[in-house]
């Protein structure tokens, strides 16, 4: 059975409230700390055995993150590691004081300077966890900077100290961990681009939170979730019914390409091909027709009149014809000279995906007002730059990336997929999916075109699932394809054509 606890992502305040429920139900605070920290200590001993990592330095903060670190210090000491503790704070929470006293009584040495720990072969970071709310004090920033210049591995407990649990931002500075053991539930910071350089390899330590404890704090369905392979597989239009025909397997219209960006039309179509969509129509400027037919022989290529700049000048469809598609994806490579066609597709009576230049054209209008008039769903797929152009007022607010995305989705009444190292997808009600893994191999022209085609093809084929979920599923397979291709070909070998070929391989590989 799916462990739904693994898919839920919380903020610091939600984690605190869930923790409070557990304590209120009778779990002693000290027992929960002991349990969580013992699990960390076991994991650390697996990852860094005493035979190879004899000496360990433990960084202890004033709160319960420091308490966890002291339990780890005690356990590692008892297991035979040589342990030194750096504890730069005078005022500690009482449980942390108790663990400090006990560790001292065992014979563990404490220091208020970091230098004695420099030669340790491993560091455990328990300075701050989800209780960090403000900038690190200057003396701690200095310590963190020194440690980041040292070369031994660092395991952070719960979060790399200095990282804000929700925004993922470094508050003045932050530990660059080799490994982070996230306690209990995934926190938002683990999926924020700005935190990636600090997290190292991340894993969740499950200390037995049950779903009903989560539902006593969160609304159902959970507002922010992590997409995974099991969920993404269920979102694919598989198995196909045995009696079907091409038009029952969805008809997607792509509106893409220009003389200048002819390849974008091919790449979008290759992404759509990999989705298995029943019928693919591709509207391109007329001079691209021969090339498209030779590259995508199975697609219906619709030649459109083109303007003097080589962009699509008009669409040879009546509004009724346009409404017959299951979904339309518009924008890849169309250039900003294709204004009139974006205006036309905005009124289609089917789901509409807008990407690339369709977003840039849209951003010259009152985005929120224009999208509010759409009666059918709209999916926007901006990268950061396009997002800023679409929603300058939201970006100017001092909101973090996730909140900006959720605000924009709500105000524009659309599904927004915000591209990045960690792509995030939100709808108008605030429901959000985060894509947990990707690869910088995708930071390459054309990757986004493949995503748009794939997404269009998946939406076209699926009748019984939520649009938000299918969009997130497409983003998941796109990232997985990049990861698999990079593994087999290095990060330099993932051009967009290759990426499209890896989509099917990613789906069948376990
Ligand atoms: N999830 C769970 O269920 C479990 C959670 N557990 C663990 O508890 C951790 C959360 O513990 P926590 O609430 O005590 O907060 P933590 O992160 O240790 O730091 C807060 C302390 O630092 C202080 N402080 C804050 N900012 C500061 C600054 N800039 N500069 C200086 N001081 C600053 C703040 O004091 P303040 O001055 O704000 O009163 C407070 O004393 C969590 O991450 C996990 O490791 C496990 O034990 C069991 C299961
Ligand atoms: N550093 C990165 N790590 C992971 N994925 C990335 C990274 N940079 C970009 N991507 C992904 O690559 C794709 C790039 O899309 P986009 O910016 O639209 O490019 P293009 O328009 O050239 O196709 C997006 O899906 C994005 O999430
Ligand atoms: K920490």
TrEMBL record:
Entry binding sites for (6S)-NADPHX: 64-68, 129-135, 158, 264, 333, 383, 449
A biological process from GO: metabolite repair
Free-text comment on the cofactor: Binds 1 potassium ion per subunit.
EC id: 4.2.1.136, 5.1.99.6
Catalyzed reaction equations: (6S)-NADHX + ADP = AMP + phosphate + NADH + H(+); (6R)-NADHX = (6S)-NADHX; (6S)-NADPHX + ADP = AMP + phosphate + NADPH + H(+); (6R)-NADPHX = (6S)-NADPHX
Protein keywords: ATP-binding, Isomerase, Lyase, Metal-binding, Multifunctional enzyme, NAD, NADP, Nucleotide-binding, Potassium
Amino-acid positions noted as binding K(+) in the UniProt annotation, renumbered to this chain: 65, 125, 161
Necessary cofactors: K(+); Mg(2+)
InterPro entries: Carbohydrate_kinase_pred_CS, CARKD, Nnr, Ribokinase-like, YjeF_N_dom, YjeF_N_dom_sf
Positions of the YjeF N-terminal domain: 15-215
Subunit structure: Homotetramer.
Functional note: Catalyzes the epimerization of the S- and R-forms of NAD(P)HX, a damaged form of NAD(P)H that is a result of enzymatic or heat-dependent hydration. This is a prerequisite for the S-specific NAD(P)H-hydrate dehydratase to allow the repair of both epimers of NAD(P)HX.
Family, per entry: Belongs to the NnrE/AIBP family. In the N-terminal section; belongs to the NnrE/AIBP family.
Protein name stated in the entry: Bifunctional NAD(P)H-hydrate repair enzyme
Organism: Waterburya agarophytonicola KI4
């Amino acid at each position: 059975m799916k462990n739904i606890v693994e898919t839920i992502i919380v903020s610091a305040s939600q984690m605190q409230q869930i923790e409070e429920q557990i304590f209120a139900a009778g779990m002693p605070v000290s027992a929960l700390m002991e349990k969580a920290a013992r699990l960390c200590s076991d994991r650390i001993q697996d990852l860094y055995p005493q035979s190879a990592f004899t000496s360990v330095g433990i960084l202890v903060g004033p709160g319960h993150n420091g308490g966890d670190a002291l339990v780890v210090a005690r356990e590692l000491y008892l297991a035979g590691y040589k342990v030194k503790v750096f504890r730069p704070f005078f005022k500690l929470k009482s449980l942390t004081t108790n663990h400090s006293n006990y560790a001292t009584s065992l014979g563990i040495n404490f220091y208020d300077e970091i230098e004695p720990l420099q030669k340790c072969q491993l560091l455990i970071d328990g300075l701050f966890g989800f209780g960090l709310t403000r900038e690190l004090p200057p003396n701690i920033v200095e310590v963190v900077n020194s440690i980041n210049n040292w070369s031994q591995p660092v395991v952070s407990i719960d979060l790399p100290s200095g990282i804000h649990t929700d925004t993922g931002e470094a508050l003045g500075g932050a530990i660059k961990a080799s490994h982070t053991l996230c306690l209990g539930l995934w926190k938002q910071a683990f999926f924020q681009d700005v935190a990636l350089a600090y997290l190292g390899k991340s894993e969740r330590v499950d200390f037995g939170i049950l779903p009903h404890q989560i539902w006593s704090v969160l609304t159902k369905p959970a507002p922010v979730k992590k997409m995974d392979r099991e969920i993404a597989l269920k979102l694919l239009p598989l198995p196909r019914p045995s009696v079907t025909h091409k038009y029952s397997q969805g008809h997607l219209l792509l509106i893409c390409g220009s003389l200048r960006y002819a390849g974008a039309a091919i790449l979008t179509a290759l992404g759509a091909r990999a989705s298995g969509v029943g019928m693919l129509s591709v509207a391109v400027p007329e001079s691209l027709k021969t090339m498209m037919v030779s590259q995508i022989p199975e697609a219906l290529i619709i030649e459109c009149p083109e303007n003097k700049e080589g962009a699509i000048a008009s669409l040879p469809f009546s509004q009724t014809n346009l409404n017959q598609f299951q979904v339309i994806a518009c924008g890849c490579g169309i250039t900003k000279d294709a204004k009139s066609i974006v205006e036309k597709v905005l009124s289609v009576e089917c789901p509409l995906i807008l990407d690339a230049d369709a977003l840039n054209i849209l951003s010259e209008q009152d985005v929120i007002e224009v999208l509010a008039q759409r009666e059918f769903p709209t999916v926007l797929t901006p990268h950061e730059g396009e997002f800023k152009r679409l929603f300058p007022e939201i970006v100017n607010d001092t909101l973090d990336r996730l909140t900006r995305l959720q605000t924009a989705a709500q105000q524009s009444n659309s599904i927004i997929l915000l591209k990045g190292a960690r792509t995030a997808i939100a709808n108008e009600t605030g429901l959000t999916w985060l894509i947990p893994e990707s690869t910088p191999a995708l930071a390459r022209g054309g990757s986004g075109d493949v995503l748009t085609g794939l997404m269009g093809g998946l939406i076209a084929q699926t009748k019984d699932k939520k649009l938000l979920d299918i969009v997130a599923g497409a983003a998941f397979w796109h990232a997985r394809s990049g990861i698999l291709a990079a593994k087999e070909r290095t990060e330099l070998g993932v051009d967009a054509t290759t990426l499209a070929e890896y989509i099917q391989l990613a789906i069948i590989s376990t």
